[in-house]
């Protein structure tokens, strides 16, 4: 942490502990420099996050808090240090300089309601789970392509994250075992996944799994099969958690007083609406004009919310 005055003179530096002791020491250091009669809104604070207990405590204290993207800090630091070397001291100095000289170009942390903050937490968690599932799906696809490409053709319609696909791959992760799957077994898995037109699709899957293709040596196939079973287990767990978190998103979003306003907009449903609300917040004073909100959108807030 570094404290500066309006001219850029360094007043003090310190390493603050986590928790109550750290925030208490920060208040004490600021009080020593400003005096007891100073107003908290005279204090500008730069921090590399827009959420968490520290941010909440700083906003509650009445300081003007600016959440600065770490990439912005790195670029600002490089303007003054040719080496661009990263350290806590250099980052603290860069943050202090940024809020002193460029606060008009930074985004101040708004006083969003606790309900809006809760919506943002669950919406981001839901999105992160979806991104994680996509990564594991890509890994599963890459592994199957190396030793069992027929599976990609077999499950092209049901998708690699479908419950029936994961069940069948867990039961038969290698070409030999998959070729022995009966139409009845495939149909049963598809029925549990609530598929339609099961008879035709099950016959097609069975035919694809029994297609002759170039294979890998047995030890390599066994190794790939073990890796696929691991990915299948992870995808099954992620499917469960994505669904559970989706319910949390809808529940928290549904309790927000502005929910009907968001849902009245064309193309916005529960999940996208929650992401938009979470990223834009609900502080009525955050955006002074429609243009300032649009500028925030142009800089990626809405694209992050709906990605």
UniProtKB/TrEMBL annotation:
Instruction: Give the range the annotation lists for the signal sequence.
Output: none
Basic and acidic residues compositional bias: what residue ranges? 288-300
Q: Which GO terms describe its biological process?
A: DNA transposition
Instruction: Tell me the GO molecular function terms.
Output: DNA binding; transposase activity
Q: Where is this region: Disordered?
A: 288-307
**Ranges of residues in domain Transposase IS110-like N-terminal:** 3-149
InterPro entries xrefs: Transp_IS110-like_N, Transpos_IS110
A Pfam family name for this chain?
DEDD_Tnp_IS110
PANTHER family documented for this protein: PUTATIVE TRANSPOSASE FOR IS117-RELATED, TRANSPOSASE FOR INSERTION SEQUENCE ELEMENT IS1111A
Q: What is this protein called?
A: Transposase
């Amino acid at each position: 942490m570094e404290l500066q005055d309006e001219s850029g003179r360094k007043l003090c530096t310190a390493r603050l502990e986590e928790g109550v002791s750290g925030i208490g020491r920060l208040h004490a250091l600021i009080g020593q420099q400003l005096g007891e009669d100073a107003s908290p809104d005279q204090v500008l604070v730069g921090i590399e996050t827009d959420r968490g207990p520290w941010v909440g405590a700083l906003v509650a204290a009445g300081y003007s808090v600016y959440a600065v993207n770490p990439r912005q800090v790195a670029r600002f630091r490089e303007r003054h240090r040719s080496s661009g070397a990263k350290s806590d001291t250099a980052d603290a100095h860069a943050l202090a300089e940024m809020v002193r000289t460029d606060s008009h170009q930074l985004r101040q942390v708004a006083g969003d309601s606790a309900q809006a903050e809760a919506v943002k937490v669950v919406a981001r968690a839901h999105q992160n789970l979806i991104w994680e599932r996509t990564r594991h799906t890509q890994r599963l696809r890459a592994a199957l392509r190396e030793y069992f490409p027929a599976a990609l053709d077999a499950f092209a319609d049901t998708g690699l994250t479908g419950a029936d696909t994961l069940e069948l791959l867990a039961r038969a992760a290698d070409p030999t075992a998959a070729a022995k799957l009966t139409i009845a077994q495939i149909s049963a898995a598809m029925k549990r996944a609530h598929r339609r037109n099961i008879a035709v699709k099950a016959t097609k899957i069975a035919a694809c799994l029994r297609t002759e293709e170039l294979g890998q040596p047995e030890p390599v196939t066994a190794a790939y099969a073990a890796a696929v079973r691991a990915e299948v287990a992870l995808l099954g767990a992620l499917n469960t958690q994505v669904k559970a978190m989706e319910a949390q998103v809808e529940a928290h979003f549904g309790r927000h007083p502005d929910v009907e306003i968001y849902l009245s907009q064309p193309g916005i449903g529960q999940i996208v609406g929650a992401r938009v609300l979470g990223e834009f917040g609900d502080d009525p004073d955050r955006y002074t004009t429609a243009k300032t909100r649009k500028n925030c959108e142009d800089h990626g807030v809405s694209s992050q919310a709906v990605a």
